Amino acid sequence: MTGMGGMAGMGGLGGTTGAGDIPASVTTASLVPPAVPEAPPHGIGVSLPAADAVAKAQGTFPYAADLWAEGLLWAAVLRSPHPRARIVSIDTSTAATMPGVRAVVTHADVPGDAAHGRGVADRPVFASDQIRHHGEPIAAVAADHPDTARLAAAAIAVEYEVMEPVTDPEAAFAAEPLHPDGNLIRHIPLRFGDPDAVGEVVVEGLYRIGRQDPAPIGAEAGLAVPRPDGGVELYTASTDPHHDRDLAAACFALEPERVKLVVTGVPGAMGDREDVGTQIALGLLALRTGHPVKLAATREESFLSHVHRHPTLLRYRHHADADGKLVKVEAQILLDAGAYADSSSEALAAAVAFACGPYVVPHAFVEGWAVRTNNPPSGHVRGEGAMQVCAAYEGQMDKLAAKLGLDPAELRMRNVMATGDLLPTGQTVTCPAPVAELLRAVRDYPLPALPKDDPEDDWLLPGGPDGAGEPGSVRRGVGYGLGMVHMLGAEGTDEVSTATVKVSGSVATVICAAVETGQGFTTLARQIVQEILGIEEVHVAPVDTDQPPSGPAAHGRHTWVSGGAVERAARMVRTQLLQPLAHQFGMSTELLTIADGKITSYDGVLSTTVDEALDGKELWATAQCRPHPTEPLDDTGQGDAFVGMAFCAVRAVVDVDVELGSVRVVEMAVAQDVGRVLNPAQARTRIEAGITQGVGAALTENLRTSGGHVRRPDLTGYALPTALDAPEVHIVKLVEERDVVAPFGAKAISAVPVVTSPAAVAGAVRAATGRPVNRLPIRPQTAAAAVTAVTQEV
Amino acid sequence: MTLPGSLDEAVAALAAMPTAVPVAGGTDLMAAVNSGLLRPAALVGLGRINEIRGWQYQDGAALLGAGLTHARMGRPDFAALIPALAAAARSAGPPQIRNAGTLGGNIASAAPTNDALPVLAALEASLVIAGPGGERREMPIGRLLAGLDMLRPGELIGYVRVPLLHAPQTFLKATGRTGPSRAIASVAVVLDPARRSVRCAVGAVAPMPLRPFDAERWVSSIVDWDGERALAPDVLAAFGDYVATACIPDPPPAQPVLDGTEPGTLPPAVLHLRRTVSTLARRALGRALA
Question: Sheet of A137-143: strands edge to edge?
Answer without folding.
Answer: A101-105, A137-143, A73-79, A293-296, A221-226, A232-236, A259-263
